[in-house]
Each structure stands twice: as structure tokens, then as C-alpha cells.
Design goal:
With about 210 residues, the chain is α+β, with helices and mostly antiparallel strands. Helices cover about 55% and strands about 10% of the residues.
Length: about 210
């Protein structure tokens, strides 16, 4: 059985979605934010971040995008990602890597700006640059969705859920919904998705 270390409002949202869609039983462990990290948790998450997924063989994996890709490989029947070897699978991998390397780090710089500067008075420029990078990344994804229902392939994949999780963290939700019509179209669809509604009830990702 899988074991998922997570907390409400975290990147565990998309991993919970993946496990539910795969019909994979898992034990959930809520990890509170604390000033003094738990040494046992640091042993499996050196950055003291969630989510962490412990596999049935005891191996632990960090990084939500990597966890999603692994679960898609382990549960191909669940349709978590386009079929391996297809051009849509290439798009899936591209956008998962893009979101995890461009958008997720920018979001962290916004909400944890103190980690990215030694100048205690310089937090605002870090935050402003982070939002600008977020906006640039979301604009690229919005263009990628033009004329398409889904980010990769012809059906819902974890890339779509990952995207709406990230856009839900934008500091100006109204701006996000108005600026990127294609992302909003996707997000509106997922806001009505039964599983997304259930997960949002516990994570409170969007109103």
C-alpha cells in the first residue's frame, strides 16, 4: 500500500487525485508545518516539504510532478497520462517538466520570499519578480490550450489537474481568470468534476 505524506492546500492535492483516479489504496499522513522539523520526516524529505509518497516496497519519492509521472506509469489502465510512446505523452512530459521547473519554483519564491534573499528589506522585489515569472508561464500554457480541451492528448490527464492546482495559488485569482481564458475554461470544467470538488472540500484550493 502507498503512504502519502501531505497537508491541506499543498501539492499533495494532485497526488491524492492521481491515487483516487488509479483506485490505489493509500494511507494518508498529515504533516503539520512546524518550526522544528521532525527528523524522521527529514529522512525521507530532506527539504521538509510535502508531498512525499512512500511506495509499497518502502522507497520514498518527493516532488509532486515526479510522483504523478511514476503513478501514471504504474497504473496505465487509469489513464492518468496519455499512452506511452504517443506524441501526446511527449506533450504530457513536456508540460509536467515545464510546470514543475518554471511555475512551481516561482510560486515558492512568492510565498517563501525570505528563502531567496539575504536582504531582509528586499522581499518585495523577490515577490514581484516571482509573480512576473508566474504570469509569463501561465501565458505560455494558456496559448498551448488554445483550441484544445486538454493540455496533453484528448482526455483529462494529471497535467490538467497539476495546472489548475498551480493557477489556484495565483495571488490575484480574478486577474488569473480574466487574463487566461483557456486556462479558465479548463479550470471551470474541473471545478465541476466530482473528484476535484471532493478534494477541494478538504484542501480549499479555490472558492
Amino acid at each position: 500500500m502507498y503512504k502519502l505524506y501531505t497537508r491541506p492546500g499543498s501539492g499533495g492535492f494532485v497526488v491524492e487525485a492521481a491515487l483516487a483516479m488509479a483506485g490505489a489504496p493509500f494511507e494518508q499522513v498529515d504533516v503539520p508545518k512546524t518550526e522544528a522539523p521532525d527528523p524522521a520526516f527529514l529522512a525521507i524529505s530532506p527539504l521538509n516539504q510535502v508531498p512525499v509518497l512512500t511506495l509499497p516496497d518502502g522507497h520514498s519519492l518527493t516532488e509532486s510532478a515526479a510522483i504523478c509521472i511514476l503513478l501514471a506509469e504504474r497504473h496505465p489502465q487509469a489513464g492518468l497520462a496519455p499512452e506511452a510512446g504517443s506524441s501526446a505523452r511527449a506533450d504530457f512530459l513536456r508540460w509536467m517538466a515545464f510546470m514543475s521547473s518554471v511555475l512551481y519554483p516561482a510560486i515558492l519564491r512568492l510565498y517563501y520570499a525570505h528563502r531567496y534573499t539575504v536582504d531582509g528589506e528586499g522581499l518585495q522585489p523577490v515577490k514581484q519578480a516571482a509573480v512576473a515569472e508566474m504570469d509569463r508561464g501561465f501565458a505560455i500554457l494558456d496559448r498551448a490550450l488554445a483550441g484544445r480541451d486538454w493540455l496533453a492528448g484528448e482526455t483529462l490527464s494529471l497535467a490538467d489537474i497539476y495546472l489548475v492546482m498551480l493557477v489556484a495559488w495565483h495571488p490575484d485569482i480574478e486577474k488569473a481568470r480574466n487574463a487566461w481564458a483557456n486556462i479558465e475554461r479548463l479550470w471551470a470544467r474541473l471545478r465541476q468534476h466530482e473528484l476535484m470538488r471532493k478534494l477541494n472540500a478538504s484542501h480549499e484550493m479555490w472558492a
